[in-house]
Amino acid sequence: MFMHLAKPIYQTPDSQIENTSLEIINVSRRGFVGGATGLTFTLALAACAPKKSESKSKSEAPLPDHSTVESGPLVLISIAADGRTQITNPRSEMGQQVITAVAQMIADELDVEWDKLVIEQAVGDSKYGDQNTDGSTSIRNHINRFRMAGALMRHMLTQAAANEWGVDISECSSKLGTIEHSSGKILTYGDVAKAASKLDVPAEASVTLKRRDQWRYIGKDKPSFTIPDIIHGKGTFGIDVRVPDMVYAVIARPPTVFGKIKTLDDTAALAVPGVTKVMKLPDLQGEVAAFQPLGGVAVIATDTWAAIKGREALNVTWDAGSNANYDSDLYGQELRATARKPGEVKRNRGDVDSAMETAAKKVTADYYAPHLSQAPMEPPAATARWTGDKIECWACTQNPQAARTTVASLCGIPEENVTINVTLLGGGFGRKSKPDYVAEAALIAREVGAPVKVTWTREDDVRHGYFHSVSAQRMEAGLNEDGLPVAVLHRTVFPSINSTFGAADQGSDFELSLGATDSPWNVPNMRVEVGKAEAHIRIGWLRSVANVYHAFAQQSFAAELAHAAGKDQKDYLLDLIGPDREIDLSKDGVIYPNYGASIEEHPLDTARLKSVLDKAASMAKWGRDVPKGHGLGISVHRSFLSYVATAIEVAVDSDGNITFPGVWVAVDAGTVVNPANTKVQMEGGTLYGLSNALYGEITAKDGAVVQGNFPAWRVMRLSEAPHNLEVHIMESDAPPGGVGEPGTPPAAPALANAIFAATGQRLRTLPLLGQKNRLTMAGEG
Amino acid sequence: MAITLKINGKKETVTAAEGTPLLWVLRDHLGLTGAKFGCGVAQCGACTVHVDGAPIRSCITPHEDVEGSEVTTIESANGKVASAIRAAWEELAVPQCGYCQAGQIMSAINLLETNASPSDEDIDSAMDGNICRCATYVRIRKAIMDAAKTL
User: Fold this and answer.
1) Are A441 and A452 in contact (CB under 8 A)?
2) Beta-strand (E) ranges in A586-641?
3) What is the architecture of the domain spanning A328-372+466-776?
4) For B2-76, CATH number?
């Protein structure tokens, strides 16, 4: 009965192979082909490893980067005698359809029939190269090595057929799972797979990748591998894992980070039917939380409900520790004050102060955005099982290698003794890049001596997360007689993600490069500064990270300047961006990681920025008359190497209720592997941004997060979503950019700009409709 | 105390503490993991199952309350409406991560079973209790409309 709990195997809808998962578990990993009838290629493709970011300093290592990439990441592909082709997917599936994308990238060059594909999920292992499914990297950083792996394998299969026939390889070519000789002879991949496996892997230079116009799968709308299971309730998520003889745990964690147990009386908890054990977890060690569990008290029971009831019955008091006084309201005031004082200069062009003095008009604005919770619908969950000094874990993790190293380190065992199986993720949004919950399961399972599943309740997820940073920003501009800026100052203040991993008292260069120091505005005098901000809760990355608040301030301010200049928002924004050019930030002294990509391959291209802006405007029929109470807003932002513009029409009624007659998104993500899914990601990214801008707010009092469950932690519901949401993908043969995250940043400023157009109210504080509806509060902003 | 429930047409004897919500009986005792845990307080709808044909939030429904009733979970929700919903869901690629989708589908099935041609407002009111953090809402709306047309 537990058989379906093994590593998930995804199959194409048409595939009739192993149509019950019961059989699949009995096949050993990578043994899918079943012995001697086929082969497993294990291709080490050193030359295809993504480039390391050279501009990234060591202190920034905790941020999404490629520092874990070893040379020669493996791509595993197996072909069975009957032609079934198994791809080992090293990336985590959380709804972005990465399984489909990986299959498309490999199968295109391999030249194999789509319905012959079977996907196996990789365990966490550095041999696969970078597995951290974060930073919208799965396609942009890996497309070439996946294509190359497919091409090399095709070459080997072709060579094997040529050998079989005793002809030169140049007389042979592949055709969808077969090799054809010019004489008309045909062998299938399955026929030659075994022979091909004995050949040396050829040099990469010996194969030619397909031309764009030859692509069969890349750029096409191939269907999801997971949806057919999901609509029948079948996919295995982290929280669904079941292993024989398992028990269930929930944890009472200290309300404050670095809090500790002061007193514990577990008598009542142990009396709850089903509760079998109560145990203390180790306190946070050292100076920073990093990926460590938060400590606290675990309640272990025969089912999840008993564990939850047992936790409620715990009599525990806490020593709140060093973060006891964290009050997000007071802290927000501090951030705002800091944003009004000079900070450390991170970008400088010209002389902002002198230019401000001579400006015809000065505009200033202060923006504020609160902490957010990623709040994936599946809260964190992990299962662990010890066998001697080895441990096997199952988890919904974006970062299985970090899970492996964290478990190994906290349990004091070598990494080789740790297996991390990656399940489907019920959403990630950055939360599941941090494997603290996997380590919790490992520690509890060792103590209990039985397999344990740790489930986070929604309250746990909302209260004990790695929160999106709160931020205060100050924007100042001096305008000339034509209303265009001669000087712009952008000062940003937020606790850094780096504070979770080391000493950090201000935003990092990496975070600043997400929408602050990379401003594309064509202004002769420009300065970007960062102010000091200590963290008092765990800060982590959330879909689009610092781009979210930086784009909110920058793109709201663009519309404010347009208003001050008496000009159209969109026309003014185009003028602000200025002539077509590739921006060289190094001239302004910016440390610019460019999302880990080379600036030559992925320049900051203002022509592309303006194109998407024009496109979104034309989709929205920009400039048209709208009914009373309606307003159009627009914004544009480059993030994760992709360019996205969002236009929004809002309707605001007399009670301040907001609806969306239309939302229009134009994206230039360079080369797109799956257009249909790119549209879906833009829809999801946009609404994630709108949900957070409208409702998202995490506050803290006495060091503890105030919100717990829905609706105190509020997210968008169906009735609040737009009815009309259109996405256009720009044709491009540029290298691929990210797709999962770039839809989010332009949403909030487009919304704020639309509300201004509709009501004349400029909302500079997020969320717009949180605990209070800021639209009904005169003077709020 | 052992009681017998009718789950997906089968009699299942379960022994769980009194008051244990149906969700945990399904998931932890019976291995039916299609219904999901999202909030535990009937706010998100991920745990939606049908009891005698009506959608309920299994995370707050004590399992003993459904003794004698027919419980249907996503794993065996079928019939004309369920097929039409699934076909529309697949055609429009509604699910992203998919975690909430069992609940979405169970709510949508009930909507179309009780209202063959729902208006936008009907959809809003029937589906507002099902949160999707991937925000697949625009496609959910359209898929329900499309499914209704095929019935």
Assistant:
1) yes
2) 604-605, 630-639
3) 2-Layer Sandwich (3.30)
4) 3.10.20.30
The Cα B120–Cα B118 span in angstroms is: 7
- CB-based contact (8 Å) between B10 and chain A? no
CA distances from B78 to A152, A386, A758 (A): 45, 40, 46
Whether A375 and B133 lie within 8 Å, measured CB to CB: yes
CATH architecture of B80-150: Orthogonal Bundle (1.10)
CB contact residues (below 8 A), chain B span 50-69, against chain A: none
Question: Is A433 in a helix, a strand, or coil?
Answer: helix
Considering chain A, tell me which residue range(s) the CATH 3.30.365.10 domain(s) occupy: 3-230, 238-322+380-455, 328-372+466-776
**pLDDT tens digits, residue range A650-672?**
999 988 899 999 999 999 999 99
Of A420, A423, A418, A327, whose CA–CA distance to A702 is shortest?
A327
At A593 the three-state DSSP class reads coil
The 10 Å Cβ neighbour count of residue A760 is: 9
Torsion from C-alpha of A230, A234, A236, A240, nearest 10 degrees: 120
Query: What is the ipTM score, two decimals?
Result: 0.99
Interchain pair B105, A687: CB under 8 A: no
Record: contact B75-A233, CB cut-off 8 A? yes
Sign of CA dihedral A25, A26, A30, A33: negative
* B116 touches A at CB < 8 Å: no
Domain A3-230 has CATH 3.30.365.10: yes
Whole-angstrom Cα distance, residue A624 to residue A614? Answer: 15
What number does CATH give the domain A238-322+380-455?
3.30.365.10
- Give, for all 151 residues of chain B, the pLDDT tens digit: 799 999 999 999 999 999 999 999 999 999 999 999 999 999 999 999 999 999 999 999 999 999 999 999 999 999 999 999 999 999 999 999 999 999 999 999 999 999 999 999 999 999 999 999 999 999 999 999 999 999 9
d(CA A568, CA A754): 12
Exposed / middle / buried, residue A692 (Cβ in 10 Å: 0-12, 13-18, 19+): buried
| The token pair that represents A221 in the structure block | 């709308």
* A227 closest CB neighbour out of B35, B90, B128: B90
- Residue B73 contacts A, CB cutoff 8 Å: yes
Contact assessment for residue A182 and residue A171, using Cβ atoms and an 8 Å cutoff: yes
Beta bridge partners of A538: none
β-sheet bridge partners, residue B54: B51
Q: Where are the domains of chain B?
A: 2-76, 80-150
Which of A441, A197, A368, A436 has the alpha carbon at shortest distance from A770? A368
Distances (CA, A) of A462 to A399, A415, A584, A695, B120: 20, 31, 40, 14, 32
